[in-house]
Amino acid sequence: RKWITLKEYSEIKFEFFEGIAKITINRPRYRNAFTPDTTQQMCDAMVRCREDANISVVVFTGEGDKAFCSGGDQNVKSFAGYIGSDGVPRLNILDLQKQIRSIPKPVIAMVNGYAIGGGHVLHVVCDLSIASENAIFGQTGPKVGSFDAGFGSSYLARVVGQKKAREIWFLCEQYSAQEALDMGLVNKVVPLDKLEDTVVEWAQKMMERSPLALRMIKAGLNAELDGQAGIQEFAGNATMLYYMTEEAHEGKNAFLEKRKPDFSKYPKFP
Ligand code: 1HA
């Protein structure tokens, strides 16, 4: 499989293969912990993933065979946030979480090792998680002076249930790939040497399905949980579809032609 580099970055790899974009955190020295710069680069890559019609599925992973992502880089954790090259404290991983949730394309976490802390939340917010047998899962916040009470808690609880989510956060234990599978935290577990093949297979299968149908399902599943922001996203898709109808064109044409619109000929199904 020949991945083509889409853009060069200092902290991530951004590659493409037959409709699939792969974003790899490239800091194996730190178990793929992220700094604000790493996160900014992932956010930048995600903008391209959203805009580029040749990209149908997005995959997140970590470099090497030890870690998917170990969360925020504790070396740069400082007063009010994590400090990047501009010297400003940020929690910009939260922006990436929102991008993953709202991009109208499936996002797969390819969990190739530790998914810990903010790195665990990163896989949780992806649409699907496929893990290697050596993957290990867990939150550490209350142990290391942090917490994610946003998607990292509420969406986690939607995935594994309230009791399990509280256990994961209150005890800060680690869980094996098999335990993660048993609690519905991941979709599938495979040997490490089969991980990418499996992810590509799943992506290819989804690319045979109707992209608009997948888009509406993702927006609907989000909307049920995301309140007004979820409805806003779902409604945007409805407006997009409405703009594809003659009825909507009639409204715009009538305005431009300075006449009364005639909507009488459009169907009103029961
Ligand atoms: O909670 C949030 C947020 C909440 C709201 C809004 C934004 C948030 C943003 C981020 C976060 C967080 O992510 S808080 C949680 C931060 N992460 C952690 O607490 C995990 C820390 N790491 C570990 O527990 C372990 O390293 C590990 C279970 C992932 C792997 O263990 P292992 O295989 O035994 O390796 P280890 O020797 O520990 O690590 C290898 C090297 O990587 C070490 O460096 P060295 O001693 O060789 O110099 C280690 O320090 C480094 N490393 C690992 N994880 C991190 C790290 N360095 C910096 N930051 C890390 N997260």
TrEMBL record:
Pfam families: ECH_1. The record marks Y82, Y243 as: Important for catalysis. It is an enzyme of class 4 (lyase). It comes from the Bacteria. SUPFAM superfamilies: ClpP/crotonase. Hydrogencarbonate binds at Q139, T140, G141. Its cofactor is hydrogencarbonate. GO terms for cellular component: cytosol. Coiled coil: none annotated. GO terms for biological process: menaquinone biosynthetic process. One of its GO terms (molecular function) is 1,4-dihydroxy-2-naphthoyl-CoA synthase activity. Pathway: Quinol/quinone metabolism; menaquinone biosynthesis; Quinol/quinone metabolism; 1,4-dihydroxy-2-naphthoate biosynthesis; 1,4-dihydroxy-2-naphthoate from chorismate: step 6/7. Converts o-succinylbenzoyl-CoA (OSB-CoA) to 1,4-dihydroxy-2-naphthoyl-CoA (DHNA-CoA). HAMAP family: MenB. Belongs to the enoyl-CoA hydratase/isomerase family. MenB subfamily. This is 1,4-dihydroxy-2-naphthoyl-CoA synthase. It comes from Maribellus comscasis. The lineage of its organism: Bacteria, Pseudomonadati, Bacteroidota, Bacteroidia, Marinilabiliales. The gene is menB.
